[in-house]
Amino acid sequence: MKILIVDDEKTAITALTRSLRKICGEAATIRVAANGKEALLVMSEQGLFDVVFLDIEMPGMSGLEVANRIRQQAPKTNIIMVTAYPQYSLDAWSFYASGYLLKPASTAKVKEALENLRRPPSVPATERLTVQCFGNFEVYYKGERITFKRSAAKEVFAYLVSRRGAGACAVEICNTLWGDSVEADRNKAYIRVYYAEIRKALADIGMEQVLCHKRNDYAVNIDYIDCDYYRFLDGDPEAIKQYHGELMSRYAWAEELAGGLSML
Question: What pLDDT is attached to residue 181?
Fold first, then answer.
């Protein structure tokens, strides 16, 4: 998700950026602008944004003027109006804003605004990873197979994919993948290394946003993944037809998942 914050107060930008990082992790690309003129320049140089958080009261061009310009140039962009003055709420809604936040906005309020956008952003199919879970686990981008430096890093990524966006801590990953073995004890110390290798492999193709990491919590952003396993669970007839009983067959921990699919 591409997000633009427009505000002439640095403290407001810092607070909103912090909230967005808590909500989106590294799955969001965040840019900032100090005024309306700069915001329009950023949008012309960096393309369309999914969401613009726009302060109403700014020197020079007001937020309402900027909102009008954005509506003309990028009508599908979600605009969330931000202000310290509640009397502007009706003006904000007159521009068909996707949301309205009163400063200082809590992280919960920011999250609520993002979850109720007028036009939820969608990721084009060409900008998603193609992940094969049926049979052996493989990852492709634009037809090219992605290689991982170590097989353990690839297995960690497979496990994160299997969780469909739900987070997992290092201990949980190790216990699931390697149980109580000596290998599990060794790998607990290497989880960060494996994660760094996954990040490097994805960053090399410009798809680092697939990963979400908050402290000791690892996950994937499923918006950037086209996966046969996901489509099966969503009831896609073609995916159901393609499944022949094998799911990430090289990984013993995936046998339980495969058994669950066979019962559906």
Answer: 63
